[in-house]
Amino acid sequence: MKKTFKVSIIETLQMEVEIEADNSIEANGIVARDYKDGKYTLDSSNFKQVNFTARTAERSQRYVR
Description:
Blueprint: E1 6-13, H1 24-36, E2 47-55
Antiparallel strand pairs: 1-2
């Protein structure tokens, strides 16, 4: 008998930007603020990877180590 599975699809988008800052904490803060303000918009051209994970109610079908 066939079972019913829920399959999660997780896409990862990635963009690298160059920023001038005094340190990495400041650089992250500047980019995070600019991202929230809409300066950076990620779309299909920024696609990095996709993962599929199937599971039943009993247990996961994919194990990550």
